[in-house]
Here is the input.
Amino acid sequence: MAALIQHDETQASGGQAVQSGVSLAAQAVEKAKRLVIKVGSALLVDGQGQIRQAWLDALADDVSALLDQGKEVILVSSGAIAVGRLHLGMPVSGDLRLGDKQAAAATGQIRLAHAYQAAMARHNRTVAQILITLEDTEERQRHLNARATFASLLKHQAVPVVNENDTVATAEIRVGDNDRLAARVASMAGADLLILFSDIDGLYTANPRTHAQASHIPLIQTITPEIEAMAGKPLPGISTGGMVTKIDAAKVAVQAGCSMLIAKGEGLHPVQALLQGSLASLFQAQANPRKARKAWIAGSLMPRGSLVVDAGAQRALLQGRSLLPAGVVAVDGQFNEGDPVAVLNQGGQRLGVGLSAFSAAEAQRIQGQQSQDIAKILGYQARLALIHRDDLALTIAQASDEAPALTTPKEDAA
Here is the structure.
């Protein structure tokens, strides 16, 4: 078990020294290129339903500092319902009916977005609101559309602020809490680090509020049944999460190649505190986000059609580029946007499996055409690539797998 869990003291694992959790947390933040930061309701909203603007301003300072270092940041924020209750005259605590929750979210989202915009505007930064349901993360076409939106916003140096779309999501289509939502966003956006800021500084062997001898666990390399058993029930209050949801989030994140930190966020400048050595628990991913996504595409999805490519396109794909329409010589099968398709060369050899950005009918219309002509052919402005390189898992040797994720394909000429 020592190889899977590291406690506070520096220990040996497999004969090599393992650094303390404090160092690991700081290094994880420093190393990350794309971060998703989840903010809990209890951190952002006080017991009277008011936004803690001083805390949010301090978080904005931290986020701007990360952006100055060339990192990309996505925020997943709770708090809309908690803020909206007050302004609709509802009780600021206790359970609400679904309709009342949705009404509170509708007004709370506006106030929350304004608060984030005001906080980031102090650094001349732009924020963008994205509302997501469970279906958006699971249905491939919506998933691709959301990935493209994140890519465009990050490219233009905006900070996406994400929340569940509580105004339309019913119980059947809800993620249910923003810990798990943040993990799905991290997976969707190809992030390499997810930080869950909460009212606790990580995972303990037991609930530290009720067990004085509970030991903090700074590094979790594998989520075992023993780890899951350490999670307790959520505490009462306006926050809906708990350690159980955080473990569930960690499973989603690490499977997508994204490491995850559970850290205490109550003080001002919580990211800065992590970099300066505050306590946290790191769930360590064993693969990077791009490789994890490609493994999922290659191993979990059954192709619903195929695209045959010419020799020039094959060479481009092996160099890590996207598949453009100009290199496609044949389209077979019935598939929709977001469906998996096999990519074959003209000799019938399978080169890989990818997620198509077009339906079969659209692919047939643009095959062999230049990307700049797609809009004229289809009658609307579409993506430039039939399969983006981040959505293509090759089954033959590739020249490099280190290209950055979620890039735009305009320079990926095949």
User: Anything to note?
Assistant: The domain at 294-411 is CATH 2.30.130.10 (Archaeosine Trna-guanine Transglycosylase; Chain: A, domain 4). Residues 8-22, 234-240, 399-414 have pLDDT under 50 and may be disordered. Residues 98-121 form the longest helix (24 residues).
